[in-house]
Model the fold of this input.
Amino acid sequence: MFDQPAPDLAASPAIPPDDEALLDAYSRAVIDVVDRVGPAVVRLDVKASGDRRHGGTGSGVIVAPDGLVLTNSHVVDGAARVNVSTVEGRSLVARVVGDDPDTDLALVRVDAPATLPAAPLGNSKLLRRGQLVIAIGNPLGFESTVTTGVVSALGRSLRARSGRLIDDVIQTDAALNPGNSGGPLVSSHGEVVGINTAVIMGAQGICFAVAANTASFVLGELVRHGRVRRAYIGVAAQQFALSRRRRHAANLAQESAVMIATVEPGSPAERAGLMSGDIILALDGIAVTGADDLIRMLAGDKIGRTVEIEALHNGDRRMLSLVPDERAHRG
Done:
């Protein structure tokens, strides 16, 4: 075996021309995206203040030339002001316009008048599994780091620190690390399709980004109101499995609903006549199969308008009308 002549490395087969062209095309696509979007990616340094125990560092992406920066809520974490560092080395002071822990998104605005490179938000509904995506950010303090991967899955749900489910989350295998949070996930067309938000520690190649369509909605709400408006009816509820006997007696098809544990005094639910022990089956004709369904349905468009609640009360189905209030903002 050891007497065999060493292989002639120079004679090793070359990369087929077609594969080489394909590889070059991939490289060119990534380089083009980085050249276009990279200047809009910034580093955010959050200073400790008030009752905050420590500061932090994360990423953000400029989405408007006048200095609007999208990032994660957990990056700014209630801070009033942050420092924004650009790829060009500029250091700019910025203030938090608003944050939404329920989607882990926040909006920061640079104080000084400036015209900055901005990246466009794309339509995340057009994404497909297997599509090339590029993550740009500042992981572990290494600025302007680029990683690539594919869209591993679409329509995932991820629980925010507030306890609410973030819907329509993108799963990717583009490598993310602490410090990537708030940076963009970009398509090969140079559009921001997601805001990187989380990794599963101990897992390999399982990372998540909040979809750009969610980010666009939150961006609009934060610009207009400084908060994301959501409806409130004043109940504490939990998922409840409907027994076969109960489903048969009430002529129900769904196997689960939500049972009200408590009703807050003076709330829309109390005014409508809902009581502890009632089981909410549907809201505006759409089945409610769990507490997350109910929370998801109570969006800002329900505030101040009459909605129909179908509920079981002592085994009898009944319809109730109520007008949700705006949920108090957790500042």
The two ends are 73 Å apart (CA to CA). Helices lie at 17-37, 73-76, 212-225, 244-250, 268-272, 291-297. The mean pLDDT is 89. The CA atoms of residues 93 and 263 lie 44 Å apart.
